[in-house]
């Protein structure tokens, strides 16, 4: 496809949600009023995210798959000459999958919210915030200027804060505060690091800085800057011990908020590590990698143990909180992959990023649906004495939940498998100069973590999906449990793409790895374009 | 006339470049005209005075246009080294624009307050215009005597403005507090100026700078003491930390538009004087005032934010109090580039650092005036102006609530307040460039702390309104009468919001000062 069209598509992907967000606040024009202002604005949200998804898919289709390492669809316009900030957009094999994932998850969220309106204040504001959030996340994957990256990174916070604060569940205000204060503290520190890189490196352009490969930065500058940037990104990723905002935020957030938080926002942290820290401060990345890997492994084990504790009978474990902690573990694999500094590990990390977005997005959707039906996400209440018996009461929902759980524990043949395996492969043979014995230890712990993951996921499946049949024996009447509606049509529509992609990515990982691998090779070797 | 006499005339009689001095002069003349007109206008025509004042300020701002083509100087020494008392360079023009624009917006805010608080119109406009004239004179003055005079012309009317609410105990107390602490600061500064004059034998900034490089060793201490004491006066005006105690009480006691004026124009006066004195007069003492200003900046932002955090929302006037403390914190950010200028290797670098302050000040002026404008609007219906009164503002007045939210996010430096974010980035980069890493870190922490209260206020705006607040009849009768006359106030909010949004789209408009040499 021709270059200008690609440029326009990429610009549209970033700008359209922003315009849509403003438009959502205005009264609907005649002809688009729908069945009432609420319905009209929710439909507006679905339309805009749908168009953005279409643009993102068109962009992916037009992407030159023979040269995924090359920045494509680049736009480079001066914006603030005083600070040497340019509107520089572009995609390569690393960012393209994330762009499409973001567009897809936001569209599915909007679709889900259209039929299943979140309880809270006006839907107008909800749609406006959702679109603003989409614009910020897409922008952070598409921009190639450090300051713009920071701007996009920050832009996400306000809408997410309000989504949790206004449409969330219990304890939402505290959780929202915690979320925003943690991430703001991280991102201000990151800003200092980015400024240091930009001022000493002489430019804020990410492509140019990656090409320099840290040549213009002294070792000390690299160490300071990389530390600041890593801390900022690690809060977002989240890396143990900076993760403690995450479980609260996930638990309190509305379904759509959790899906986007887990599916998309967390990826911004790991994406930043791959895009900024690895190529721009390679020496510092080398120095910090073993520590990063150690924290990552602690995160894996810690996340799994926390989940195991939550899944126990009588622990009053919240399913949403459990999935949030499992995210800490999964993101631990991503961080471990990045910390190996090998193409294998980084590819694995990027793959695990996408897989986690698909699978955890699906799981949060399912848990949200379960909450709508039964009014609780408390495992003990759901399961009662024997189990929630979802297989019997709502077989399709139960089946999907089991599918999400086994995908999450990394069953071969599904998306969750490849990323974690590649990350561990990378740790088996880390980059030159990194201590092999240390990484072998990390790998062993990570492998143990997969076992723990399997354990708690299977416990969850047993307690939620299995259990006694709801018809009381002998009497033939319904037990005291209320009947659960099975999966509705719109839910199928919102979830089936995630299921299909999970299977596809599991069976045909080359489709994704083929995109990321050349780009990763180039980033690690010092990008030359 | 004989040739001899004419040459004598040229050496004694200066030719004054009236065009260059037009902006402050027009403002001062307009003030006098308003004062005289007040005597002849009947009571029901008094509102014309306000439009006259606005026209005067607008004219003064327009008078900046012909000066854009290049630096002009006037009131120069006719013999000896070239030194001028008045220079209209880029720095002076930008600050004059800020001051006059700020005064203009304040004037727009004031219409409804004049009516609501029954303030004497003639005096009010006269005092506002004279203070604006002094504030416009200050950035262009290039000798210490003119600086001090300009500072006093800007301050004296301000005391009266603060105390203008007759019969209000808070107001007179605020004025007295403001007056006493300010006069002390002025006295200290005058002492400093006299020391500097004694040590260098000149009042012109450029000649002081030359003379300080080779001061008689016996006078060295005197010169240093003089420099420090001179800075104290300006530090007071910027409300830097040990001199900031007057701020909250003064802002609360003053009518809201006057508080807005002090927070923007008063600060602009302070920091432009500080810049002139440090960068132009005392560059050879940069190793002394550089660290001192850096410490001052760190203390100021920390103290301001800490106090702002501790404001209880249900206390009366908590909104203005919060804005007052936040303005103290913002003054800390404004000082950071000045400190960075002290560490600069060359005049060029120092001037660029100063540009960051100017850019930040422009952003701050627009946004802070906007926030005060909304506060003035809310003050009309709930005079106590508590933070809790802002609850549900979005439901009652969506546009005002969105505007206030935007202004607060700009002050906080969060998107969608892009301009606030990038203004902070320029300040950060000035600090990092100068090697003041610790100050950058302190500022980063402060930015996060400040986010807390700005965001909390923003959230309150979008809460559902208090369900119990329905005893409407009494307050509804009041605003129903006065509401039509809030047009200027609405215009002020619209203007600042439009300016803020335009700057967020094209930050280069103000940030270009951060990359150019101004002085």
From TrEMBL, chain A:
The keyword Transmembrane applies. It is a multi-pass membrane protein. Residues 145-429 form the NADH:quinone oxidoreductase/Mrp antiporter transmembrane domain. Its EC number is 1.6.5.-. One of its GO terms (molecular function) is oxidoreductase activity. It comes from the Bacteria. Keywords: Membrane, Oxidoreductase, Transmembrane, Transmembrane helix. Its main location: membrane. It is found in: Endomembrane system; Membrane. The chain crosses the membrane at residues 40-63, 96-115, 135-164, 176-199, 219-237, 249-268, 288-310, 322-342, 348-370, 400-419, 439-461. Pfam families: Proton_antipo_M (PF00361). Belongs to the complex I subunit 4 family. This is NADH-quinone oxidoreductase subunit M.
TrEMBL record, chain B:
It is a multi-pass membrane protein. Keywords: Cell membrane, Membrane, NAD, Quinone, Translocase, Transmembrane, Transmembrane helix, Transport. Signal peptide: none annotated. Its EC number is 7.1.1.-. Its main location: membrane. Residues 141-445 form the NADH:quinone oxidoreductase/Mrp antiporter transmembrane domain. It is found in: Cell membrane; Endomembrane system; Membrane. The keyword NAD applies. The chain crosses the membrane at residues 20-41, 48-68, 88-109, 121-138, 144-164, 176-197, 222-246, 258-282, 288-310, 322-343, 358-379, 400-423, 435-455. The keyword Coiled coil does not apply. It catalyses: a quinone + NADH + 5 H(+)(in) = a quinol + NAD(+) + 4 H(+)(out). Belongs to the complex I subunit 2 family. NDH-1 shuttles electrons from NADH, via FMN and iron-sulfur (Fe-S) centers, to quinones in the respiratory chain. The immediate electron acceptor for the enzyme in this species is believed to be a menaquinone. Couples the redox reaction to proton translocation (for every two electrons transferred, four hydrogen ions are translocated across the cytoplasmic membrane), and thus conserves the redox energy in a proton gradient. NDH-1 is composed of 14 different subunits. Subunits NuoA, H, J, K, L, M, N constitute the membrane sector of the complex. PANTHER family: NADH DEHYDROGENASE (PTHR22773). This is NADH-quinone oxidoreductase subunit N. The lineage of its organism: Bacteria, Bacillati, Actinomycetota, Actinomycetes, Kitasatosporales.
């Amino acid at each position: 496809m021709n270059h200008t069209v690609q440029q326009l598509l990429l610009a549209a992907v970033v700008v359209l949600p922003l315009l849509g967000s403003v438009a959502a606040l205005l009264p609907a024009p005649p002809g688009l009023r729908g069945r009432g202002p609420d319905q009209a604005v929710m439909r507006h949200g679905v339309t805009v995210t749908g168009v953005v998804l279409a643009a993102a898919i068109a962009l992916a289709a037009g992407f030159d798959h023979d040269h995924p390492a090359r920045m494509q669809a680049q736009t480079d316009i001066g914006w603030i000459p005083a600070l040497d900030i340019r509107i520089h957009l572009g995609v390569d094999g690393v960012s393209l999958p994330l762009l499409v994932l973001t567009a897809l998850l936001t569209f599915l969220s909007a679709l889900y919210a259209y039929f299943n309106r979140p309880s809270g204040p006006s839907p107008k504001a909800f749609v406006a915030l959702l679109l603003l959030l989409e614009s910020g996340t897409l922008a952070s994957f598409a921009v190639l200027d450090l300051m713009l990256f920071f701007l996009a990174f920050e832009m996400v916070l306000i809408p997410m804060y309000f989504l949790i604060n206004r449409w969330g569940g219990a304890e939402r205000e505290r959780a929202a505060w915690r979320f925003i204060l943690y991430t703001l503290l991280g991102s201000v520190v990151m800003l200092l690091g980015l400024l240091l890189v930009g001022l000493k490196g002489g430019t804020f352009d990410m492509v140019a800085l990656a090409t320099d490969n840290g040549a213009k930065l002294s070792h000390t500058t690299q160490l300071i800057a990389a530390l600041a940037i890593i801390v900022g990104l690690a809060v977002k990723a989240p890396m143990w011990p900076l993760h403690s905002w995450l479980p609260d935020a996930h638990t309190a957030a509305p379904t759509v908020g959790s899906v986007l938080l887990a599916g998309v926002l967390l990826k911004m942290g790991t994406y930043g590590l791959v895009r900024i820290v690895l190529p721009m401060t390679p020496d510092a990345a080398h120095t910090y990698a073993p520590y990063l890997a150690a924290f990552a492994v602690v995160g894996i084990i810690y996340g799994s143990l926390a989940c195991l504790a939550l899944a126990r009978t009588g622990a009053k474990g919240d399913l949403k909180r459990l999935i949030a902690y499992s995210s800490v573990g999964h993101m631990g694999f991503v961080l471990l992959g990045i910390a190996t500094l090998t193409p294998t590990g980084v590819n694995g990390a990027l793959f695990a990023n996408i897989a986690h977005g698909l699978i955890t997005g699906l799981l949060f959707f399912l848990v949200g649906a379960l909450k709508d039906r039964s009014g609780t996400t408390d495992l003990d209440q759901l399961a009662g004495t024997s189990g929630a018996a979802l297989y019997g009461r709502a077989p399709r929902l139960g089946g999907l939940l089991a599918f999400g759980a086994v995908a999450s524990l990394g069953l071969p043949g599904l998306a969750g498998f490849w990323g974690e395996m590649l990350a561990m492969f990378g740790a088996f043979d880390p980059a030159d100069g990194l201590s092999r014995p240390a990484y072998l230890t990390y790998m062993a712990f990570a492998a143990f973590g997969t076992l723990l993951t399997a354990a708690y996921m299977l416990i969850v499946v047993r307690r939620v999906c299995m259990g006694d049949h709801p018809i009381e024996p002998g009497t033939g009447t319904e037990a005291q449990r209320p009947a659960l509606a099975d999966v509705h049509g719109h839910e199928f529509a919102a979830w089936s793409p995630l299921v299909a992609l999970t299977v596809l990515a599991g069976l045909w990982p080359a489709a994704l790895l083929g995109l990321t691998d050349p780009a990763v090779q180039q980033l690690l070797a010092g990008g030359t374009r | 006339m004989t040739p001899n006499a004419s040459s004598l005339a040229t050496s004694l009689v200066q030719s004054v470049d009236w065009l260059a001095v037009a902006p402050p002069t027009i403002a001062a003349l307009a003030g006098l005209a308003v004062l005289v007109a007040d005597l002849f206008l009947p009571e029901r025509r008094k509102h014309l005075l306000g439009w006259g004042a606005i026209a005067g300020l607008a004219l003064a701002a327009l008078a900046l246009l012909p000066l854009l083509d290049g630096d002009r100087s006037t009131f120069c020494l006719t013999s000896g080294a070239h030194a001028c008392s008045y220079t209209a360079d880029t720095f002076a023009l930008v600050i004059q624009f800020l001051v006059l624009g700020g005064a203009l917006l304040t004037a727009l805010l004031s219409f409804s307050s004049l009516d609501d608080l029954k303030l004497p119109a003639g005096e009010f406009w006269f005092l506002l215009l004279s203070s604006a004239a002094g504030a416009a004179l200050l950035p262009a003055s290039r000798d210490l005597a003119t600086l001090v005079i300009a500072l006093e012309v800007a301050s004296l009317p301000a005391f009266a403005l603060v105390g203008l609410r007759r019969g209000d105990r808070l107001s007179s107390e605020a004025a007295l507090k403001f007056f006493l602490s300010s006069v002390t600061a002025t006295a200290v500064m005058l002492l400093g100026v006299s020391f500097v004059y004694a040590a260098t034998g000149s009042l012109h900034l450029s000649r002081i700078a030359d003379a300080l490089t080779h001061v008689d060793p016996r006078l060295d201490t005197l010169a240093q003491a003089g420099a420090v004491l001179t800075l104290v006066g300006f530090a007071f005006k910027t409300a830097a930390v040990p001199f900031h105690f007057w701020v909250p009480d003064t802002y609360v006691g003053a009518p809201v538009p006057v508080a807005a004026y002090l927070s923007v124009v008063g600060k602009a006066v302070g920091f432009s004087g500080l810049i002139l004195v440090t960068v132009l007069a005392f560059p050879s003492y940069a190793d002394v005032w550089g660290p001192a200003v850096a410490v001052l900046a760190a203390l100021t932002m920390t103290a301001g934010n800490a106090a702002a955090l501790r404001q209880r929302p249900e206390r009366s006037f908590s909104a203005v109090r919060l804005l007052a403390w936040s303005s103290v914190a913002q003054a800390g950010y404004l000082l950071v580039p000045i400190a960075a200028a002290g560490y600069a290797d060359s005049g060029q670098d120092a001037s660029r650092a100063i540009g960051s302050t100017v850019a930040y000040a422009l952003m701050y002026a627009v946004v802070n005036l906007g926030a005060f404008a909304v506060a003035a609007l809310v003050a009309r219906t709930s005079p106590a102006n508590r933070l809790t009164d802002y609850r549900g503002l979005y439901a009652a007045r969506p546009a005002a609530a969105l505007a206030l939210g935007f202004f607060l996010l700009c002050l906080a430096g969060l998107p969608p307040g892009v301009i606030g974010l990038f203004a902070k980035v320029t300040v950060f980069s000035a600090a990092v460039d100068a090697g003041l890493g610790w100050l950058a870190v302190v500022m980063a922490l402060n930015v996060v702390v400040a986010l807390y209260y700005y965001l909390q206020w923003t959230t309150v705006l979008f809460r559902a309104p208090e369900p119990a607040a329905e005893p409407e009849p009494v307050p509804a009768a009041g605003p129903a009468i006065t509401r039509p006359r809030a047009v200027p106030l609405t215009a002020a909010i619209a203007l600042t919001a439009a300016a803020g949004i335009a700057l967020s789209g094209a930050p280069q408009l103000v940030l270009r000062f951060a990359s150019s040499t101004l002085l």
